[in-house]
Amino acid sequence: MDVLALDATRVLKSLRDPDVLALAAAEGRVLVTANVRDFDPLLKWWAADGRSHAGIILVPRSIRNEDFGLLISGIRTLLADTKAVDWIDRVAWLSRS
Q1: Where are the alpha helices (DSSP H) in the chain?
Q2: What is the pTM of this model?
Q3: What is the C-alpha separation between 91 and 49, in angstroms, rounded?
Q4: Is 15 within a domain?
Q5: For 52, how many CA atoms within 13 A lie in the half-sphere containing its CB?
Q6: pLDDT in tens, 5-60
Q7: Are strands 56-58 and 31-33 parallel, antiparallel or unpaired?
Q8: In a domain, 14, yes or no
Q9: What residues pair up with 33 in beta bridges, in sequence order?
Q10: Backbone angles phi, psi at 17, to 5 degrees
Q11: End-to-end CA distance of the chain
Q12: How many helices (H) and strands (E) does the chain have?
């Protein structure tokens, strides 16, 4: 699994949400975000504009950033046995189960 963290470089860290989504789409990356408040309307705007993305995993407020094990296992579960093409324009919620 190839991961790109936004806090890896100053340039990535400074990207605005639309630019983050555009980067993930351009690189064919499933985007994982806890920023549901901003990405929910952004995703609706992209869909209305006919733009495609490589998939989004939304992390609910009930899962904290410090819950690394839960985050990793939840993401692995969502991605398991799923081809990349199956994630095109898919939006999924990470769950505790």
Answers
A1: 10-13, 17-27, 36-48, 68-79
A2: 0.89
A3: 16
A4: yes
A5: 8
A6: 888 889 999 999 999 999 999 999 999 999 999 999 999 999 999 999 999 999 99
A7: parallel
A8: yes
A9: 58
A10: -55, -45
A11: 21
A12: 4, 3
One-letter amino acid for residue 64 of the chain: R
φ/ψ of residue 49, rounded to 5: -85, 0
Q: What is the rounded distance in angstroms from the CA atom of residue 24 to the CA atom of residue 82?
A: 18
Q: Is 34 exposed, middle or buried (0-12, 13-18, 19+ CB in 10 A)?
A: middle
Total structural domains within the chain: 1
Task: Look up residue 66 and give its two tokens.
Answer: 């410090």
- Which residues are 91's β-sheet partners? 56
**Residue 71 belongs to a domain:** yes
Could you read off the pLDDT of 52-71 as tens digits, one per residue? Answer: 999 999 999 888 877 888 99
Compute and round to an integer the Cα radius of gyration of the chain: 13
Tokens of 40: 């929910």
